Amino acid sequence: MRAAIQNSVGGPDVLVIANRPDPTPKASEVLVRVKAAGINPVDGAVRAGYYPLLGEPPFILGWDISGTVEALGAGVSGFRVGDEVFGMPRFPKQAAAYAELTAVPADEIVLKPKGAGHLEAGALPLAGLTAWQGLVRHGGLKSGQRVLIHAAAGGVGHLAVQIAKAHGAYVVATASPAKLDFVRNLGADEVIDYTKGDFTDQVRDIDLVLEPLGGEHAERSLKVLKRGGVLVSLLNVSDATRGRASAQGIRVERMSVVPDREGLLELAKLIDAKKLAVHVAKSFPLDQAGAAHAFLATKPVGKVVLSV
């Protein structure tokens, strides 16, 4: 099989195409022929050596996959050869999604939603699960709550807006000037241009904040939360911020996305109910993985995907 591998850490140009032996599914695994592989910011951080999840190179990046079942390992039920599937297997261990074939745990993938093509399904898992787990599992999202979503035009953010709306929330979202209309069209009830003043002067009485930026931004987000509210952060939160949150009666949840079959099924239901759509900013062929990483660094609207 062909794969985009890296033999050293560095810039996007370290991603090169190489031939590798076809993987063989072990017991409880499924061999998937990859049709699309989503690219996420964590991919770039691992590639550059800032976030050494996979140890020293060589390795194959990628966790988002959409494709077809090629073969079944011993003991696998519920899938047939030819089924269209998607998922975020093995995170944070190597899933080797930037390849034509990958063997993955059967309980970490599900049938692809009929309402999405492979590009959209391949873009969905990591960002979608981050949004769903953050809002629903960690945040305890309920209908009627007021939710603030930062960076709402990004990979996680644009999905979070739609998931929150599908759960009956009133959504306030922040975005840059060029992306305001995009976020409005997602269904956000209020959209704040974060370049025009401090968001803490423009919003109040929030029940739940989804916070992807961390640091001082997380600290400021406490100001808009009501007592009993929840700050869900995708990055580390300082002890000082946690202390201030506790004093204000605010719960802080630091989350890291994990493989989640139930979450994937919920995302697929929302796709098929037309309550969730994945915006693919651009797709690249597998042999342009480096160019795809460079494009992601420009912070496009939505997701970037490899078409395998």
Kindly describe this structure.
It is a single chain. The chain is 27% helix and 28% strand. It is built from 9 helices and 16 strands. It has helices at 41-48, 118-123, 125-138, 155-166, 180-186, 215-221, 239-247, 261-272, 289-296; strands at residues 2-6, 15-19, 29-39, 59-60, 65-72, 84-87, 101-105, 109-111, 146-149, 170-175, 190-193, 206-211, 225-233, 251-254, 280-285, 303-307. Strands 3, 5, 6, 7, 8, 15 and 16 form a 7-stranded mixed β-sheet that branches. It has a 6-stranded parallel β-sheet with strand order 11-10-9-12-13-14, sandwiched between helices. Helix 5 links the parallel strand 10 and strand 11 (190-193). Helix 3 (125-138) packs across helix 4 (155-166). The longest helix is centred in the middle third of the chain and has 14 residues, at 125-138. The model has no long low-confidence stretch (mean pLDDT 97).
